[in-house]
Design brief:
This protein has twelve helices and eleven strands. The chain is an alpha/beta fold. It is globular and about 65 Å long.
Amino acid sequence: MILDQIRLPVVLAPMAGGPSTPELTGAVTDAGGLGLLAAGYLSAEQIGSRIAAVRELTSGLFGVNLFAPGPATAPEKYAGYLAALGARFEVGAARHDTDDWAAKLDLLVAAPVPVVTVTFGCPSPAEIARLHGAGSEVWVTVTSVGEAEHAVGAGADVLVVQGSEAGGHRAVFRDDIADDAGDPLSLLALLQLVSAAVEVPLVATGGLTTGAGIAAALAAGAAAAQIGTAYLRSPEAGTNPVHRAAIGGAAPTALTRAFTGRRARGIRNAFMDEFGAAAPVAYPEIHHATAGLRAAARAEGNPDAVNLWAGQTHSLAPELPAGELTGQLAADAKNALERTLARRFPAR
């Protein structure tokens, strides 16, 4: 089990769309954690080059995250939304794709990495068996007990348990039927429910920006914590300047489909407030349609028309090199656990 082989219980979240870099992945791995590399929005050829770059930077264990493809959305379900956006912005073409899923699987079978993690769904048992046959562990991100049971049944080795506090996209298998049916579960509640339902190791993610937060997740049954937002200000991260400037501020976050058609948590801005209520469930169609306007906003330094993905505790994110931050988070978690035990359960 890979979790038994890493020195520190810290896993780098695979932040697609810019922040994830080979340098960030390698720095977390070399510090004793597990670096993950985001493959989302990249072609199989591009992620192959990035995997090679990670291998040049570190000889340690690392993993690659894939986006599981979902069903296409009928154009009539998002045409009105795009028309409303088009009255204010230059909107691109909406389209469905699989994020090069099949080619990326082929790549990772031909040139395996220690861990393959999957978000937005669960690979089929046959696909998991292919990755196992190549020597990779398969981790699946889940947001409910039902998803957890499905993933374990398909052969997942580890579950990444994502609480509602997490920044970026919700990892629900079916965004059109999951979160809208009720409030998404917080990390602590979800950890308890999932650990009671399945018997595979759990990695906790969502709102864990400090050692104390990691300690709480470990005490609740997690084997490690997956951290994203806390690394967004690290120099190794490819976070764009507009996004980097917003992290560490006090602005609140909210869940929205406004930018991509899939529910995601980001720092509230004018675009979210104006268009969030009308945004349809249509991923990746809306993601592609708004890609150009978001790129333009980043180029202009305009934080009000770009997705500023961040977890609920983003105001606590430090500005530290990734290796230093990894060691500090682990040390702070250890100290928090020891202090709590000594204070609440003193020796007699």
